[in-house]
Amino acid sequence: MRPSRLMLQLALTLTLAACGSEQDPAQTASSRESYYKHGTPPGSAPYPYYLTSYGAPGDASFGTPACGGKKVDGTWYYSTGAYTFGCNSKLKLEANGKCVVVEVVDNGPAAWVEAKAAASCGGLGYIIDASPLASKALFGSSSAGWSDCFSIMVTPVPSSTPTGPTSCGSTNPNPTPTPTCGNGKLDAGEKCDSAIPDGQWGSCPTDCDDGNSCTDDFIAGANCQAACGHTYTCTQPTTPVCGNGKLETGEKCDSGIPSGQPGACPTAARGWLSSPPASSSPGSCAAGSASRRCRSARPSRKRPRPAWRPATPATASLAPAASVHPRAPA
User: Fold this and answer.
1) Helix-strand-coil percent breakdown of the chain, rounded to 5?
2) Which of 48, 145, 169, 315 is 20 to 30 Å from the Cα of 124, by its Cα?
3) Which residues lie across from 231 on neighbouring strands?
4) What pLDDT, on a 0 to 100 scale, did the predictor assign at position 275?
5) Which of 247, 249, 251, 252 is nearest to 236 (CA)?
């Protein structure tokens, strides 16, 4: 028995309902959420996904997407991922050194599709189902299925980003706002803000005096790029030069200073308490002052006291008789 046209149409309808649109009307909102929703892969963007494609010009199996708006007919850059990234958000898809930006407008893909991708391709198997234009731009193929294992990196980008092919370095998920000088806030890229009152953190300098007499103080830059600068002007300490006539740090004397003046080096080794060390020889700038390291060169005013002297008449009478030894006659 040949099946009637009605039976063939019914079978085709059931097949499309099972394998086609991800917006099965029989599913409730809660069941769709549990069926499609999952978070992004662990870590930070860009996230690893696989790319598949759906929708084509004249394909009646896909109509208005879950987020509303234009039909997903393969003529513009769209994708699934509404439960993960939100309706009408923008994603940058990158592969093979190429990038495209798509608009998230639909649910999906189905959980069983990602399970198949994980088993066949590895990883979590997370999939972005997108317009054939995206797979054509990245892989040169308008048809992409889960078994193709087309690996992509996915990065959320600002919703104002235009869809379509783009430079891979032209979008930024966290763009740095352009600083506005004079808005009373210290924005990224500013060294100060001219509208912040003087004396408060972030205010622009008007006086850079650091109280150091050895520095020249100045303001470098202008407006919200102004900052204080300081140039050291005092002479830095140098290694002492022996014989230059100056008593410098590290010298005990200087051989260039005339004898008898402060800082002059000893000119003779007479009177050393002991043999002078080689590093402190007379004439050296390490010799030390005569008053500290050597005795005075002037003769002593005190005469040396002999060990014994003859007794005087006054002391002779006090000497015991036994101590007198008269000379024996010749």
Assistant:
1) 20, 15, 65
2) 169
3) 216
4) 45
5) 249
What is the set of domains in the chain, with CATH numbers? Answer: 32-166 (2.40.40.10), 204-236 (no CATH), 241-290 (no CATH)
What spatial distance separates the first Cα and last Cα of the chain, rounded to whole Å? 183
Write the DSSP assignment of 302-318 as a string of letters.
SPPPPS--PPPHHHHTT
Confidence of residue 79 (pLDDT cuts 50, 70, 90): very high
Alpha-helical runs (H) found in the chain: 5-19, 29-36, 82-85, 111-121, 132-139, 290-293, 313-316
User: Which pLDDT tens digit goes with each residue over 216-244?
Assistant: 889 988 889 888 888 888 876 567 888 88
By three-state DSSP, how is residue 29 classified? helix
State percent of the chain over pLDDT 90: 23
Residues 107/32, Cβ–Cβ less than 8 Å: yes
Instruction: Report the pLDDT value the prediction gives residue 308, as an integer from 0 to 100.
Output: 55
Which residue's structure tokens are 């006291």? 305
- The Cα–Cα gap between 177 and 180 comes to 9
The secondary structure of 227-292 as a DSSP string is: EEEEEE-SPPP----TTSS---TT-S-BTTSPTTSTTBPP---TT-SSPPPGGG-TTSTTS--HHH
At position 46, the amino acid (one-letter code) is P
pLDDT one-digit tens code per residue, 167-202: 987 545 445 566 788 888 888 778 899 899 988 888
Above pLDDT 70, what percent of the chain? Answer: 65
Structure token digits, residue 253: 């004397």
